Amino acid sequence: MKKCLKEIEEITEMQQWQKSTVYQIYPRSFQDSNDDGIGDIKGIISRLDYLHDLGIELIWITPMYVSPGNDNGYDIADYYQIDPIFGTMDNFEKLLKEAHKRDIKIIMDMVLNHTSNEHSWFKEAIKSKDNPYHDYYLFKDPVDGHEPNNWVSKFSGSAWEYVPSLNQYYLHLYDVTMPDLNWRNPELRQKIFEMLTFWANKGIDGFRLDVINNISKTKNMPDDTFETPTDDGRNFYTNGPHVHEYIHEMYRKVFGPNNFVTVGELSSTPISEAVKYTDPKREELSMAFTFHHVKVDYTNGKKWTLGHYKLTDLKSIISDWQIKMHKNNGWNALFWNNHDQPRAISRFLDDNKYRDESAKLLALVEFGLQGTPYIYQGEEIAMKNSYFTDIKQYKDHESINAYNDLLKKGTDKKTAIKILQQKSRENSRIPMQWDLSENYGFTKGMPWIKSFQKDNYSVKSVRSHSNNIFSFYQNLIKLRKTNKTLMEGSYKLLDPEDNSVYSYIRQKDDKRIMVIANFTEKEQKRTILNDCKLILGNYGNIRKTSNIVKLRPYEALMLEQ
Ligand code: NOJ
């Protein structure tokens, strides 16, 4: 009996990654150590103490493998090598060692939906239809002299590219230089498992799996009907017929035996599917990145528009995921920012007059939720959008293609730039702001991407003030590690129709935590729990009379009853 109880305790014991916070590094823009203008591994090592001080326990680093860099590393040409722009394999091994010394785990980004067209597999594949590597990719014959179907690339234009020497097209859901892999081919899968094992043997702690829910395409890849504004072919490859099988196979061969932490990037995925990916019983992934909440300002589902969001919509999306994932044993990865998103502070709040309050509000709302929180580099010092004013300042293919598309459709240049300033992912790719010297202490050379704005927020300047954003994050990270209500409690949305204030309750046994956040610059009076005490607030105190609180502009409170 005793043994049985102990076993139950062990099963329900939370995993370390469920209590920890993850920090995302976009290495190119994080810290340059050799002044060539590109961030590198030695730069990351030099900042490990900073990250340890913040309190995070895992780092996710976006791809650093050999790549021509058309999509900043998401176009891999050699899975087995570190790109020299970031350093050497020795540097990488040292990074692992130094991180582990500080009890920080390293999660590598892994791109398995596509490779670069400079990968040796693809170079072989286009040699002839009989080449053994030809079937590693998705080639199709023309139909009536045209593309095999009407799917649209996520980077604009057709998703097919013609290869005259083969008289065939290949599928590329992303950039034309990023051909999609054919996961139906067992030999390809075997090669992938071997490669994942190579990294496991290096001693890494897990993978963030890029667009992993797109790897299994519907057999004959039919035309899309374009019935809804978001139709572009995605219905035939998102969460496709064999995707769970393939991921389970990776779990059995690599993730499980190595006790990996894995997070799947799952765009356009319903909750029912996200549950399947992350329910531990199914042995697939640890947690899910989903994107519905960061599409809340798309107009009719379209990204490249000037959009506005309603707080009630944002609350409803987040709440749906909170409740249904928890109820069905799924696990959320919580985030506002990453390298593909404009900065949330610029997008949803005020990155000017109430910048500190807004940054802390976002932190508090995220860390109050159920799931594993992520911080994207610079979020802990309230970095804001880059707001580029000229298309020449952009490097990102997705943004440049979108700009050209907008002009083709008749949008004037000024509006097109305004749309990019709101929606482009380049907004969050400018160098990390370490201090206020030239190029913000990121490099002494010419940065690969420049920040053209004068900003007085940096790690050094922010941390020189008391009660700063960085220390607010430190408090939240600490709290998450120990507070059972935050880790395991249920979630309930209060006042779904309130378009100014977001409040919710987390509950575990008889303990309740209330998070209440004013998303406007107007003062708001609201009712809070009786007899509760303040755990954390972005103004440092609370203004209340009995259970009525007067929320100041962008005020956010975490209260315990
Ligand atoms: C998602 C990555 O986060 C993004 O940066 C990349 O462009 C696409 N996947 C394609 O790999």
Automatic annotation (TrEMBL):
It is an enzyme of class 3 (hydrolase). InterPro entries: GH, GH13_cat_dom, Glyco_hydro_b, O16G_dom_2, SusG-like_C. GO terms for molecular function: alpha,alpha-phosphotrehalase activity. Residues 24-429 form the Glycosyl hydrolase family 13 catalytic domain. Its EC number is 3.2.1.93. Keywords: Glycosidase, Hydrolase. NCBIfam families: PRK10933.1. This is Alpha,alpha-phosphotrehalase. It comes from Companilactobacillus baiquanensis.
